[in-house]
Structure formats: C-alpha cells, structure tokens
Amino acid sequence: MSAPSASKPSSSKRPPFDPRDPLGIDDLLDPEDLAVRDTMRSWAADRVMPHIAEWYERGELPGIRELSRELGSIGALGMSLKGYGCAGATAVQYGLACLELEAADSGIRSLVSVQGSLAMYAIHRFGSEEQKQRWLPGMAAGEIIGCFGLTEPDHGSDPAGMRTYAKRDGTDWVLTGRKMWITNGSVAGVAVVWARTDDGIRGFLVPADSPGFSAPEIKHKWSLRASVTSELVMDGVRLPADAVLPEVTGLRGPLSCLSHARYGIVWGSMGAARASFESAVDYAKSREQFGRPIGGFQLTQAKLADMAVELHKGILLAHHLGRRLDAGKLLPEQVSFGKLNNVREAIEICRTSRTILGANGISLEYPVMRHATNLESVLTYEGTVEMHQLVLGKALTGLDAFR
Predict the structure, then answer these.
(1) How far apart are CA 258 and CA 252, in angstroms?
(2) What CATH topology corresponds to 252-397?
(3) pLDDT in tens, 394-403
(4) Which residues are in the Acyl-CoA dehydrogenase/oxidase N-terminal domain (predicted)?
(5) Residue 382 among the catalytic residues
C-alpha cells in the first residue's frame, strides 16, 4: 500500500510579491505593532513632511515645543518606559516609531531619542522616586523637553576623560564645565549632565533656569539642520543634594543610556534609507531617457535590487534585536553590530539613490540628499564607526584594542 502523497500548497493562496515589503516582514508584526507604526507614519506625513524641506533649508526646527507636545500626545516620548505617563510600549514598537520618524527626518527622530532614550531613560533607571515623579510625567507629555550632556569639546569617544566637575559645598553640589553637540539643549527644561566627582562619575539633573547654566545654540550645521543643537555651559551651577541621580556611579550610567539610544538608531537609520530608496524607485519608473523609463535599464535595476536587499536585511536585523531586547537578552555588542551595519548601509543606499536621481538628487524637492547629510551625523554620534568596530573586535577576539 503506497503512502499518501503530501498535498502541495495552492499557489492561489500565496500573497502577491509586495515591492515595499519583499521579505514579508510585516507578517512578524502583531496588530498593536502595526497600529503604532501607522500612527507614527500618519503623524509624520501630516506634521513634518509638508514642511521639512523648508525647515532644513532654513536650518531651523520652528514650533519644537508644539511638536514635542504632539509627540507626547501620541505616546512617542519615553514610549518604551513604564509608568509616570509613559506608554509602556515594546522595544519593537519603539523601533518602528523610530523608523517612521526618521523616514521623515533624522532631526525629528533625534528629538524623540534624546528625550526618551537618553534623558528620560536616565531618570527612569537611575533616579529617585521623587525625581521620577517631578520630571517624567511632564517629559512624557512633551511639556518638558530634556537633553543629555555627556560629550565635551575635547572628549567624545573617550568620555572617561571628561573635564566637567562637580564638587561638594556643604550639602550642595557646584557644577562647572562644558558639554558640546547637545540635541535639544537650548529648548530643554532639564539637562541630564554627567560630571566627575571625588566619588566617580555621577549624573546630575540640572533645571535650565539654574543660575550659571546656559545653552547657546550651535549654528552653521550642514547636517541635522532641522534640529536644535547646543553647547551646555555650567559656570558654578549650585545644585541641591537631591539633584544627583542616586542609583549609579561610573560610566555604566551614561553608557547604558547610550546603548538604549543606539538601539533606536538601528531602526531609525533604516527609515532614512527607506525614504531615499522609495524616492529612487518612483523616479526610476517615471524618468525617461533614450525613449523609456530608466527603471527599465539593467544597471538601474541592479542598483535598486542591491539597495532593496540591504534595506530589508537591515530592517530584519533591527526586528531581531528588538525581539531580543523585549526578551531581556540584547547585549551591548549586538547593539554595536546593528548600529555599525545599518547606518553604514543606510548612507550607501542614500548615495546610490542620488545617482539614480542624477542632478535632481541634490535638490530639496527630493529627500535623498537631506537624508544623506543627516546620516553623516548619525554615523558618528552615539559611537563612531571605529568605536563600534573595536567593540565587536574585542568581543570576537577577547583583546582590548581601545588603548
């Protein structure tokens, strides 16, 4: 008696190939994930996309306080944190939000990342209950904007060499120093500032109205132009004893915050890449040369195919890291893996997209050059290429090549 033959799946039940989701990654998302993604995409399309080219050209982000409140109202600020008015979203949902916001502009995603993954995360993880109650609800609602002061004019990749110093004066602290390239700095209501003390590196919550504190805005940027970037100056800022974050001492504090923010970049960089890639596809289908659309030529199709492969591999990598984070298994080395790969590939996608658009690729009528120049900053902030290579090199060999 012969064994019954296995039935073959009917080809009629297979979904059609989706050029916007060639790997079917959406199948990995549940309805809540899709709802978060669609909410962020709709907000960005309505509130950012009609204006972003003008903002970028002017080098401004007008109405940032209103935008912050709107982002708070849709749960985008500190969205993966729990309690204190935060959304308590999953890591994957936060990642999807970063992707959609950066598809609009890296400056918008940076506003959200610094607020939630750096300033709010530091308070949520290392702050006292009183500090959490004082700051987090207003920050989650977008009523209070936060910034994160770690990088200094002479110390970027080596934060252990920071010169900003806090000394005790009775029960108070007196904070002196400078921080550089601080997103949200001049509009922040509170700054999380990391400083050397006699007991090690500590984090301090500095209200923006503190005497001796100022945040002059940095101008003349050719990247992240639709973003507020500032210097922080602390000239003998006197703070009460309860201004210090009590639950951490040493670089573990700021570095854990940076790891959380880098995770968002793994997703966000793919948003910039997607926007550039989709612009190139649309252009290739409509731009005619030699009597037909350039998308019909083999060399153009090869470029589009290669970009699609790297784009969706990057999104799949981001999704995998998000699931690991939700499961409590994500390692800092894996975040370095994701940031190194995805930002590097995103820049290449932007550059290749620009070649398809030709001279039009440098025009702000299209998003490609704006995303490319933004990604030049994303490539080096929160860990340069070299630093992430050395993180992975150490993990692979067990040998420390940092010094």
Answers:
(1) 10
(2) Butyryl-CoA Dehydrogenase, subunit A; domain 3 (1.20.140)
(3) 999 999 887 7
(4) 31-143
(5) yes
